[in-house]
Amino acid sequence: MSRQQRSGLRLPVVDFLDTSVFVEILGVPHMDGHRDEVLSEMDARLKAKVRFVLPTATVIETGNHVFQIKNGDARRKCAAVFMSMLRKTANGEAPWVLHERTWDGAFLASLCDGGTTGMDLATHAVRQQLGTGDLSIVSERDLYADRARAEVRIWTLEATMGTWAELP
Is the pTM of this model over 0.85? Predict the structure, then answer.
């Protein structure tokens, strides 16, 4: 149970989109095996008034996956859809918003500390837990949660990332 839930208040819910979810939404070839389920779940969450945030690392990691598609035609199509999604995000037309914050000293300190995971970046590396992209999503979520009156989570399909999807 999160600290917001323990307070007894019914707060709005905000889900940060992990790369594992965003590649499904985008339909990245060979990474979209659960696309129908993810789109259905997204629709259900939108109807439940869940708000979505697109973290910086999700954009970068998803772009890297798109650029690594072997088939050139499929890569071009997927890149065009990805670019369209990013433009819609920039124009406020997507069902998610950017977490508009700066990569400042506080953010980098949080990243090094591992956010609320209880392990710093080096420990994650040694234990092969979360990579820097995932840790940055946790840190973005943590910073957002510190100033938002909302239950802030990470929507992920990855078991390891799921360990830290809810705030302690």
Answer: yes
